Amino acid sequence: MYNAIMNSPLSFPSKHGHSQIKICVSGAAETGHCGIDALEKAKELGREIARQGAVLVTGATTGFPLWAAMGVKEEGGISIGFSPAASEREHVEVFKLPLDYMDLIIYTGFGYPGRDILLTRSSDAVICGCGRIGTIHEFTVAFEDGKTIGIFEGPWEMDSELEDIIAKSHRPNTKIAIGSDPKKLVEEVITLVKKYKVAEYKTTKS
Questions:
Q1: What is the DSSP string of 59-82?
Q2: Alpha helices, DSSP H only, in 38-181?
Q3: pLDDT 10s digits, 75-121
Q4: β-strand 176-179 against 148-152: which pairing, if any?
Q5: What DSSP designation does 134 have?
Q6: What percent of the chain has pLDDT over 70?
Q7: Of 127, 133, 80, 131, nearest to 108 (Cα)?
Q8: Comparing 65 with 19, which gets the higher pLDDT?
Q9: Does 3-11+19-195 carry CATH code 3.40.50.450?
Q10: Rounded distance, CA 101 to CA 166, Å?
């Protein structure tokens, strides 16, 4: 499972794992508007996240994030989900969400809006793919929190909508990468994360 991470030239060597980069993929749970090749694009995005040594974080949902998780697991990577539910039973029976393709699910119990905040704040970066209003919410939380953001361009409307929000935000932001090539986009996102990531805290010996 860890081969892709430990062998990646972009990963941080670390004894404790603090510097392991965590990338959230934000996207729509219902994907009828995403285009016929959205599944493969999402999976390739997930594959690249794993190939480049990062951990995938999602909202533990269906659709675009689940497809990204499938791609991560194809490459032997790590996938973590943040659920809006308070328990596994509520996750499955009330929210009707999957358990597959995730190594760990964190049950927030905060519904979708509260889940979104924990999801983005637990990640080093957020990549937005084909989405709906929930993706816009995760994008704006990440933007306000100063997170690195990737906008994955594809045969969907979300990319241009987010680019329009940025253009009209009247707030410069140097931590945003935009592109349609999953490999290049993940590379740019990781480079930005490394540029701004907090250094390891070291205690002084008395």
A1: -S-SSHHHHHHHHHHHTT--EEEE
A2: 38-51, 64-74, 88-93, 111-121, 133-144, 158-167
A3: 999 999 999 999 999 999 999 999 999 999 999 999 999 999 999 99
A4: parallel
A5: H
A6: 88
A7: 80
A8: 65
A9: yes
A10: 32
